[in-house]
Design goal:
Length: about 210
């Protein structure tokens, strides 16, 4: 990763070809050993009777890209909510994203930082209808974790359009296609308990 000075005094982050290659990740799934329904299939079943319209993704603004730099990434990684609030109040966009369209929200969901996500939801009012250049939205990253993070998923379901759970990336994978096979039972139990909340979270359907 390289950093160069931006004309406005903001340090821009440039990713090498190696880091770009690293971003091409595949869902951590294989053919199930049993006939257990996958979480991704369960979500599709829940929405089968709803006329879910395609998500209208937010277009990245110039300010989003210029707000993404080494400083704000370090703040996110250090889980420093107070410092992040200072940057937000100074005018930094919390919808900041890099040149690949990967936003701070993607990063936070992948890292499982509940305190940072709470700030982004309640104070910064970030958009979750965002995707990177591989078509992944924050739900994809929330599912692509070493262990299921149900508390984070609760926060997303309560705040985002749950139609995002049906949204496919460029490889045709919905968020729960990224869930590890060994976690399918846990996720299925979770989804069954949250079925009503998930259906109520549809903001763009007939």
């Amino acid at each position: 990763m390289m950093a160069t000075a931006h004309p406005k005094g903001v340090t821009k982050v440039h990713h090498s070809s190696h880091s770009a290659k690293h971003r091409i990740r595949k869902p951590l799934v294989t053919k199930p050993a049993t006939k257990e329904e996958s979480p991704a299939s369960r979500i599709k079943t829940y929405f089968s009777e709803s006329n879910v319209k395609p998500i209208e993704y937010r277009k990245h603004k110039e300010d989003d890209v210029s707000s993404y730099d080494v400083k704000i990434v370090k703040v996110i990684r250090s889980k420093n909510v107070a410092r992040l609030r200072e940057l937000f109040l100074s005018g930094r966009s919390m919808n900041a994203c890099n040149q690949f369209g990967e936003s701070l929200v993607h990063m936070v969901c992948r890292r499982g930082d509940l305190g940072i996500l709470k700030f982004m939801i309640e104070e910064a009012k970030v958009s979750f209808s965002i995707k990177d250049d591989f078509g992944r939205n924050p739900f994809h990253d929330a599912c692509w974790t070493p262990k299921p993070n149900m508390e984070m998923m609760d926060m997303l379901i309560a705040s985002a359009d749950t139609a995002l759970l049906l949204s496919e990336d460029v490889r045709g994978n919905t968020p729960f296609d990224y869930a590890r096979r060994e976690h399918h039972t846990q996720w299925n139990e979770y989804l069954e308990k949250r079925k009503e909340a998930i259906l109520k979270g549809l903001k763009n359907c007939d």
